[in-house]
Amino acid sequence: MIDTQGDIENQVTKVNKYAFACAIVASMVSIVSGYDTGVMSGAMIFIQEDLGISDTQQEVLAGILNLCALVGSLTAGRCSDYIGRRYTIFLASVLFIIGAILMGYGPNYTILMIGRCICGIGVGFALMVAPVYSAEISSAHSRGLLASLPELCIGIGIFLGYLSNYFLGKYLSLKLGWRLMLAIAAIPSFALAYGILTMPESPRWLVMQGQLGKAKKVLFQVSNTTQEAELRFNDIKLAAGLDENCNDEIVKLPQKSHQGEGVWKELILRPTPAVRWMLIASVGIHFFEHATGIEAVMLYSHKIFKKAGIKSKENLLLATIGVGLTKIIFLVLALFLIDKVGRRRLLQVSTAGMIIGLTALGFSLTMVEHANEEVLWALTLSIIATYFYVAFFNIGLAPVTWLYGSEIFPLKLRAQGVSIGVAVNRSMNAAVSMSFISIYKALTIGGAFFMFAAISVIAWVFFYFLVPETKGKTLEEMETLFTKKNKSGKSVAMETYPTQ
User: Fold this and answer.
1) CATH 3.40.50.300 fits 17-207+260-477, yes or no
2) Which Pfam families match (predicted)?
3) Does this model's pTM top 0.90?
C-alpha cells in the first residue's frame, strides 16, 4: 500500500530548491560583511606598520565599522519597508563597492576611515535585511536552515579575510598588500548587485504593498506544493489584516501599513505584552552575542596568540586562519541542527560551552602573563580554548541570534523590530572592539576573558527564562506563541518556557 500521507509530508518538509537559491544569493551580502571584519584583523598589523597608527587609532579603526553599522541598521528597517527587501540588499552592495574602493586607495588614515564608515553602513543594511529576506521566503520547516545562511556566509567571509591576510601579506609589498586586501571586497559586491536583481521580492513584503498577485506567484515558486503555497498565502493575508478569501491581484492598504509608518509607536511606546516580550528576547540575544566577547577573539586573535607566546607574523596569521576555519565548520553543523534540535536548546548548549572556553582561556593567558619563561602547556591551552570557544559560539549563539530576531516579530513590525536588534548588536560589537585593548590593559588579558565568562553566565540565565522555542512555528504563529496564558490568565514568559 502506498503511503500517500507520508509522501505529502516529505514534500512539505523538503527544502525548496528555488527558495534555497534565493537565500544563498541574499546571503552573499553577508560574505562581504564578514570579509570586512576578518580582513581588518590581519590588515591592521600591516596598516600600523605602514601608516604608523597608535593603539587608540587601531581601536577606532576596528570599531568605527560597527558604529556606522548601527546607523545603517536603523535606516535599513525603514528602507526595507519602503523600497523592499531586495532593493535594500542591492543598496548594501553598492555601499560595499564604494567603501572597498576608498579603503583600497587609502593614501592616509582619514580616507581609510571614510571608506570603513561607508562599508559600516553597508554592514548595517546587510545584517538587518539578509536574515529577514531569507526568513520571509522560507517555510516553517526550513526557516532555521535558510535564515541561518547569512551567519554561515559571515563566517565564510571572515575566513576569506584571514586567507587574504596570509597570502597577500606574505607575497606582496607592505604598501600594496593591505590595500589589495581591503579593495578586493568590491568584486563579490558587483556580483551581488547583479544577482539580487534576478531574485524575486519577499512575498510578505509584496502582500504588505497590496500586490497579492505577485506575492502568490512568488509563493508558488518557493513552496513545494500548491496546497503549501495556498496555506502560506492565506496566513500572510490574515497577518496583514486582509480577508483570506480576498483574491484580487492588487488591493489598497492604508499607507501606514504598507510603508511601515507608526511602527515605532507599536514597538517602543505602546507595545502589546507579546510585542514587548519579543523585543526583550530579540534585544537580549543581540546584546549577549557580543557582550560575551566574540569580537575580541575574531578581531584581536593575533594579539591573543601573541600574548600566548606565538611570535612570528606568519604563525600569527596561520593561527587566525584556524579560528576562521573552526567558525565555518561549526556553523555548517549548526545549519543541520537548528531545525531539529531547536533554537532554545542550541542557545543553552552553546553558552555553556562558551563559559568553559572563556574560563580556560582566561586561566591560560594569566599563567603565561605571570610566567618568567615560555610555558608550552599554557600556550597550547590558549589555542585550544580559543578554538573551543569559537566552536561553541558558532554552533548556537551565532546563527540563532540572526534567525530568532528575523522570525518572531509580526509582519508589520518585522523589519524595524529586527533593525532595533541589529542596532543593539552593532553597538555592543563597537563597544567591545573599540575598548578591548584598553580593557585588557586595565584588567590584564586573562582578566578580560574571565569578565566575558561571567557575562556568559548571565546570558545563559537570560536564555533559560526569556527565550521560548520557535522551532516548527510559522511566522504568523509567533504572536500566539508569545501570548500564551497560564490558568490564572497571566503571561507565562518566565513560568512555562524554562520547562519546555
Assistant:
1) no
2) Sugar_tr
3) no
